[in-house]
Design a protein that fits this description.
The structure is a single chain. By secondary structure, this protein is mainly beta. The chain has two helices and 17 strands. The N terminus and C terminus are likely disordered. The protein has a 15-stranded mixed beta sheet that branches. Strands 16-17 form a two-stranded antiparallel ribbon. 4% of the residues lie in helices and 42% in strands. It is globular and about 40 Å long. The chain has one domain: Jelly Rolls. The two termini are 15 Å apart.
Length: 252
């Protein structure tokens, strides 16, 4: 994912007045959007989203070709979805005066994201998890990136110029993550691997029914995932819901 010159999410967005969520409640808002973002709701209805649209627990979000979407959750965590990504808001429970009730579970079914943890991640880090097809990620006060390639990462730049390998690419800009691979049926569970700030990892796909362990990747060999300026800046640009034609924004 992103190299050590990290692409910041710039967390000084608008404050939320809501401080809790129950099933079906609004748990996030679209703050920046470039391209088409849809939400399939728990009742089966699908709608297009725009800047300031609410996101509810149970929604399945999909970004179309060349679309980036940035979300801000009610605990002040933030997430950017890459093009051709699918994210399910499986569970998001946050009540500011009651840390014991915290629970955040996000399922990235396809594609990739960058995320910065909010209040739940700071006070109840064991209550936050990101599920992907091949691994579950736990956090420790984290800014992380994940890219899951399934013959669909041809547009992602790499230092070698080659398409990123199929599998799960990870990076940590701050804090740390634990990565627990999903093992094939009948296989013993694997111990979680740890990635700390400044580290990059790659979890290969299953090979002949065996899940290989995660590999540490040198920074100069990691895929480089950039965000357009309309997504990384804090004030959405006029017409940000249109084509993704802005120059890329890199925070050195």
């Amino acid at each position: 994912m992103a190299p050590l010159k990290i692409y910041s999410l710039l967390l000084c967005g608008c404050a939320w007045s809501a401080v809790w969520a129950s099933p079906g409640d609004t748990v996030a808002q679209v703050t920046h959007l470039s391209g088409v973002l849809t939400a399939r709701q728990a009742d089966g209805n699908t709608k297009m989203l725009s800047v300031k649209s609410p996101v509810r627990e149970g929604d399945v979000l999909t970004t179309e070709n060349e679309a980036y979407a940035r979300l801000k959750f009610i605990d002040h965590s933030e997430m950017v979805l890459r093009p051709n990504s699918v994210l399910k808001i499986s569970e998001f429970t946050f009540r500011e005066p009651d840390p014991k009730g915290d629970k955040v579970r996000l399922e990235m079914l396809k594609g990739g994201f960058r995320a910065v943890s909010g209040m739940v991640g700071k006070r109840s880090r064991e209550s936050v998890s990101f599920s992907l097809p091949t691994a579950t990620i736990g956090i420790r006060g984290t800014h992380l990136g994940a890219l899951f390639c399934q013959n669909d990462c041809g547009g992602v730049p790499t230092p070698s110029g080659q398409t990123p390998a199929n599998g799960l690419h990870l990076d940590v800009a701050a804090g740390g993550i634990s990565v627990t691979p999903v093992t094939p049926p009948g296989a013993p569970p694997m111990q979680p691997a740890i990635l700390n700030a400044g580290q990059f990892g790659f979890l290969p796909p299953t090979q002949n029914g065996i899940q290989p362990p995660m590999i540490l990747v040198p920074p100069n060999q990691a895929p480089q995932v950039r965000m357009p300026a309309s997504i990384s800046q804090n004030t959405p640009a006029a017409g940000a819901a249109g084509r993704n034609s802005e120059p890329e924004c890199v925070v050195q």
